[in-house]
C-alpha cells in the first residue's frame, strides 16, 4: 500500500493540467487525500472505493481547489463530516453514497 500512497501524493501535488483524474480503488489513505488541497488544475476527481475517511474528506472539503465534480463513494465518511462540503464554493457535483 505504500507505493499507492506515494503515487497518489505525486499526482496530487504535480503542477499539471490534468482535467480529469480517476484514482478509483487505489487504496489511497486519508493522509494522502490532503495532498489534493493544493492542486488547482483538476476539475473532475474520482476517489471512490479508497480509504480517505473523515480526515481526508475534511481536507478536500475545506481546500480552495478547482474541483467541480468529486466522487467519494465508499470512503468511510461520516455524515457529520460530509456537511463540510456545504461551504466549498467550487464543488458543483458531489457523490458520497
| CATH-assigned homologous superfamily | Ribonuclease Inhibitor
Q: Are there runs of 5+ residues with pLDDT below 50, and where?
A: none
If strands are numbered along the chain, what order do they take across the biggest sheet? Answer: 1-2-3-4
What does the overall shape look like? globular
Largest sheet: 4 strands, parallel
Strand proportion:
5-15%
Secondary-structure-derived class: alpha/beta
Order of helices and strands: HEHEHEHE
The radius of gyration computed from the alpha-carbon positions, rounded to a whole number of angstroms, is 12 Å
Name of the top-level CATH class: Alpha Beta
In DSSP terms (H or I, runs of 4 or more residues), the helix count works out at 4
- How many structural domains? 1
CATH architecture: Alpha-Beta Horseshoe
- How many strands appear in the DSSP assignment? 4
Task: Describe this protein's structure.
The chain is of the alpha/beta class. The protein has a single domain, classed as Leucine-rich repeat, LRR (right-handed beta-alpha superhelix). It is 30% helix and 12% strand. The chain has helices spanning 2-13, 30-33, 53-61, 79-82, and strands at 20-22, 44-46, 69-71, 93-95.
Key features of this structure:
alpha/beta; four-stranded parallel sheet; 97 residues; 4 helices; Leucine-rich repeat, LRR (right-handed beta-alpha superhelix)
Provide a brief overview of the structure:
The protein has about 100 residues and is an alpha/beta fold. It contains four helices and four strands, in the order αβαβαβαβ. Strands 1-2-3-4 form a four-stranded parallel beta sheet, with no helix packed on it.
